[in-house]
Amino acid sequence: MSLAEMQAPIHRDEAAIAAVVEGLRATYGDRLSTSQAVREQHGHTTTWLKTQAPDAVVFAQSTEEVSDIVKRCAARKVPVIAFGAGSSLEGHVNAPGGGVCIDLSQMNAILEVNAEDLDCKVQAGVTRKQLNTDLRDSGLFFPIDPGADATIGGMTATRASGTNAVRYGTMKDAVLGLTVVTATGAVIHTGGRARKSSAGYDLTRLFVGSEGTLGIVTEITLKLFGQPEAISGGMCSFPSIKAACDAVIMTIQCGLPVARIELLDPLQVRACNIYSKLTLPEEPTLFLEFHGSESGVREQAETFGGIAEEFGGSEFRWATKAEDRTALWQARHDAYWASFTLRPGAKGVATDVCVPISRLADCVAETQRDLDENKLLATIVGHVGDGNFHVLVLVDEEDAGEVERAEAFVGRLNGRAIDFGGTCTGEHGIGQGKMKYMVKEHGPALDVMRAVKQALDPDRILNPGKILPEA
Amino acid sequence: MSLAEMQAPIHRDEAAIAAVVEGLRATYGDRLSTSQAVREQHGHTTTWLKTQAPDAVVFAQSTEEVSDIVKRCAARKVPVIAFGAGSSLEGHVNAPGGGVCIDLSQMNAILEVNAEDLDCKVQAGVTRKQLNTDLRDSGLFFPIDPGADATIGGMTATRASGTNAVRYGTMKDAVLGLTVVTATGAVIHTGGRARKSSAGYDLTRLFVGSEGTLGIVTEITLKLFGQPEAISGGMCSFPSIKAACDAVIMTIQCGLPVARIELLDPLQVRACNIYSKLTLPEEPTLFLEFHGSESGVREQAETFGGIAEEFGGSEFRWATKAEDRTALWQARHDAYWASFTLRPGAKGVATDVCVPISRLADCVAETQRDLDENKLLATIVGHVGDGNFHVLVLVDEEDAGEVERAEAFVGRLNGRAIDFGGTCTGEHGIGQGKMKYMVKEHGPALDVMRAVKQALDPDRILNPGKILPEA
Known about the structure:
Chains A, B: Residues 50-227 form the FAD-binding PCMH-type domain. Chain A has helices at 3-6, 14-28, 36-42, 63-75, 128-135, 152-158, 165-168, 171-174, 203-207, 241-253, 266-276, 294-310, 322-333, 335-339, 360-373, 400-419, 438-442, 445-456, and strands at 32-33, 56-59, 80-83, 100-103, 110-114, 119-123, 140-141, 175-181, 187-191, 216-223, 225-226, 230-237, 260-264, 285-292, 317-318, 347-354, 377-383, 388-395. Chain A is of the alpha+beta class and 471 residues long. In chain A, a hairpin with a 4-residue loop joins β17 and β18. In chain A, α15 runs antiparallel to α16. The interface between A and B is large, with 94 and 94 residues.
């Protein structure tokens, strides 16, 4: 499947689209936009996929409005695409058949914080940073941190995770319940505030990660965590990726409750040194963070120090002061942008895969060999406690041969991850960009996914052209 | 919905059933049984629901055989019911329309243990104790422990949990991937060995807890955990249920990574004293267990001691020796059987609900008042770190009035839990017994569950008459 095929245009019923847009304009007035700039921004993709703009963007302010908009689209079989912060990476918000984009960013109220139960309820447009700012004085925090300041709705839709997942889980684990607008415009509530339930099908988990193709998430009930009494962190260099990965495996196997354990390859370290003005040795490096009691984090760090030594790691370099730790993790979060310092003007092709951690070192090593052989410049960072790593290929867009080599590389990388018993995406999602790997990864299970889609959205109005390749 | 309605017989196509059974007999010979004893044992329910036996029981030995049996049933629209250990509590394995029961207990091979990745793959008939016995020398363990020695397949089907869930999660969290035979007899694989994935719909979580109504689980890939370096535990009495629950809330809020925190009401303590020859004060009591490093468990226990004191708890009584700890937890696991010592010859009506922990004390207090007002004898135990508690009503089956009062009580209890923002079952599942609460708990979301069922099993051959009440 070529890039063009992945983004294949979908049949448009021009009259239906025009009628729905005009009707919405009458109701939503200024909160509906058909300007080219707004439409393009809402079909914008952060990476290499081309923008496919919707016909109109409506800024919804309530679940009832989302329901109203979906009902109108359903009546005329017009595509409807939910939009949060637009930070997804695989063309999730593109509109290959045009239609109506529902921008949820104005639905940004934090509806409830239940400190005793360690949960909260937010509207879909709340961002993760907004939530944590709001929680700051409550003693609680929400741990899931994809690179961007994504919305909770978008993170739910893509089953996002981030650097803390090894300790605190992913959106699959964090979401207790949802309010969802279905393809008919019905409003349903899934899950609830109980910590566990065996009452019927797990619709919550069905909608988490469904990328707006089964329903539009408007409210999310989330698990929260107590802010740890103490946090410590630091970094450690290793003679090889293999040695670093072996240290990670041992760490996880020992049951050390590490909060973050991130791998940066030497090229990524160089980029971070330049961008974030650091002076780290340009070697395979682990960034770590420990959460717990004062004595607990000390003990964890000592245990890790012993493990690192066993695998030839450098002495553990502490970021003892809070500001040093913040600087370290800011550098990690800026790794994506830092990479571009290695090749200013280049286009970034970002991809992520996830493998069982025992296969991580081999998978990364093969990937580096593949990059070298194909003369591609790329940085690698990984949430290695989960076996998840990201490759950012820096490509000269004007060089057709290089673009082709990069696309072919991404294909091999994803196939390799699946062959290693892993998945073509640990946290970015499928969108348009990874549809072509769905058959290899899921085989006949794809038919079951298609049956679920057919049952919940028979007219295929919800974010069409995503996740499921044509049969 | 009355008990009779919950167990309403389903139309039987006698000729189709006879033809399928005869065909299966020709293939499976001795591994097919139509004896009344075997059939009744496979429709046996541990609690108050009446047995509805299947027409035949086949002992399958492979996924291919399960596929073959389902295909034959599908061809004639004959019901097919998966059976593990038969330890479910809500009539899950009953056959209100007869049909074929597939007993998976002979599929009890542990297929893989991947120590480096902390995962394993087992056939559905492996029991939790069998798995842990097998793992003993590996340094790993599987934490999920419903009271019975259930099969992993059955635990997957009911989204089971147990005393360790507060620390290690439920089957929702433990299952990484599945092999499932669908309603057409197709064999699919969901999930995989990667620790996380954003690649499409979460079919794994859709099948977990679906009680054999969407597909038959034949193989399960499970997360494992390292055996903790140190374990400590003990118990503590409180002046009231409220005080005990407040101590639990504080414990969870502090982020204390308690491995088990179990509440026993005074009546349950009395029963355990008799049955397990203990001498505990007959007061609201918490049993606790801490996992971690030597110093970590000491610190956790000290922290908990401080919390207990704050809420008027007794001094923490340590079970320092491993055999004392084993005796304590054996008593907890035997609590169900112990309850019958309070009223020998009684029938047990077991039910479980789960609420946000801030509502737990109120929910338990109202429940005890309800029991008193209705002159019902019942014990209460709870996995209170999750807000989940069990009530076992001891009923004289011969006393129709008492049976009716018990049924009405269970109805109020389930309604109360839902009204408190909770669920009608934390871990037992719906089966037949809790179908009547599905409308109240899920509202219009039930239509989405029905659509999923219709999509995956349009002829309703998979465990019919369970989970979803007739619309």
